[in-house]
Design a protein that fits this description.
By secondary structure, this protein is of the alpha+beta class. It has helices spanning about 1-35, 85-100, 140-145, 220-225; strands at about 45-50, 60-65, 70, 75-80, 105-110, 115-120, 130, 155-160, 165-170, 190-195, 200-205, 210-215, 240-245, 250-255, 275-280. It folds into four domains: about 1-35; about 45-110, wza like domain (wza like fold, 2-Layer Sandwich), CATH 3.30.1950.10; about 115-195, Outer membrane lipoprotein wza fold like (Roll), CATH 3.10.560; about 200-280, Outer membrane lipoprotein wza domain like (Outer membrane lipoprotein wza fold like). Strand 1 and strand 2 form a beta hairpin.
Length: about 280
C-alpha cells in the first residue's frame, strides 16, 4: 500500500507540473500575441476628443494640424501626430501636472481620421486615392487598388515617402517570397506601379496575334498561352523565335512544340528576350 501511495503521489505531482507548464506556456503565448498587436498612431487631420476628468472645462474636440500639432487651453501647442491615444493622454497629463501640481486623469479618443489615405497610380485596376487601413503592407495596398494588371512592371514599383523614392519588387510577393519588399504603408505614401515598356510579338497561326508585354523569365509556351494558343492550321513542329542581336543581325531559334515535354527538345530553358518575335507557320496539308 505504501508503494502504491508513493506511485500515486509521484504521478499526481508529474501531472501537476505538466498542467503548470501548459498554463505558463499559454500565458506567454497570450502575452506575445498581445504585444504583437500594433496600436493606431494619430495622424494629420485626425479629430481627437480630449477629456480631463478633474477639469471638465478643459475638455474639447481638437483637430491635428497639418504640421502634426494640436493646441489646448493653458498648454499651448504641442505635437500629437505619431503618438498613440494612450501616449498622447500621458503627455497631456504630464504637461497639466506642472500647472495643477497634480497629474490628472486624461483620456484621448480618436473620433475621426483626417488625411489617413495613400495614393496609388500606374498599372493597377483602380488607381487613385485609397483610404488608409491600419497595419497595411505593400501587397495589400496594391490589392485594395484592384491588383496589378498584366502591364505592371512588378520589379520596379516605386514608393514615395516624405519626397524620398524607393524602388521595390512585388514580383515574388504573391508566392510568399522576398518579403522584405512587403513594407508597411504609411498615410500619405505614394505608390507608383510602372507600366512595362518591353514587349514581345506573336505572328502566324496563333489565336491572338500581336504585341504582348514581356515578363522576365517568360518562355515560348507562356507567350503562346497569352495569345490564346494556336489555330487548327498551326505547324507545331516549326515554331521559330526571331531575335534581333546587338549587332543588328538576327538569330533564329527553332522550337518543336510537339515535343515540349521532352527535356532535350523543350524550350523551357530558352527564355524569351524583350523584342522577340515568335512566328508559328501554317502546316502543309
Amino acid at each position: 500500500m505504501r508503494i502504491r501511495h508513493r506511485v500515486i503521489g509521484k504521478t499526481a505531482g508529474m501531472i501537476g507540473m505538466v498542467f503548470l507548464a501548459i498554463y505558463m506556456w499559454g500565458t506567454a503565448v497570450r502575452g506575445e500575441s498581445a504585444g504583437a498587436v500594433e496600436l493606431y498612431h494619430i495622424g494629420v487631420g485626425d479629430t481627437l476628443s480630449v477629456t480631463i476628468w478633474e477639469e471638465p472645462k478643459l475638455n474639447g474636440i481638437l483637430t491635428v494640424l497639418p504640421d502634426g500639432m494640436i493646441t489646448m487651453p493653458l498648454l499651448g501647442t504641442f505635437r500629437a501626430a505619431g503618438y498613440t491615444s494612450d501616449v498622447l493622454a500621458h503627455h497631456i497629463a504630464r504637461r497639466m501636472s506642472t500647472i495643477f501640481r497634480k497629474e490628472p486623469s486624461v483620456t484621448v479618443t480618436v473620433k475621426g481620421m483626417g488625411n489617413n489615405f495613400f495614393y496609388i497610380t500606374g498599372a493597377v485596376g483602380k488607381p487613385g486615392v485609397v483610404p488608409f487601413t491600419h497595419n497595411i503592407r505593400l501587397l495589400q495596398a496594391i490589392i485594395l487598388a484592384g491588383g496589378a494588371t498584366m502591364a505592371a512592371k512588378e520589379d520596379g514599383v516605386v514608393l514615395i515617402r516624405d519626397n524620398r523614392p524607393r524602388t521595390l519588387s512585388i514580383e515574388k510577393l504573391d508566392q510568399g517570397k522576398d518579403l522584405s519588399n512587403n513594407i508597411r504603408i504609411h498615410p500619405q505614401d505614394i505608390i507608383i506601379v510602372p507600366i512595362k515598356t518591353e514587349q514581345i510579338y506573336l505572328m502566324g497561326e496563333v489565336a491572338g496575334p500581336g504585341a504582348y508585354y514581356f515578363n522576365k523569365g517568360m518562355t515560348v509556351m507562356q507567350a503562346l498561352i497569352q495569345a490564346h494558343g494556336f489555330t487548327q492550321f498551326a505547324s507545331l513542329g516549326s515554331v521559330r523565335i526571331i531575335r534581333k542581336k546587338k549587332d543588328g543581325s538576327k538569330k533564329i531559334i527553332h522550337i518543336d512544340i510537339n515535343h515540349i515535354e521532352d527535356e532535350k527538345k523543350t524550350e523551357a530553358k530558352e527564355y524569351l528576350h524583350p523584342g522577340d518575335l515568335i512566328y508559328v507557320p501554317q502546316r502543309m496539308f
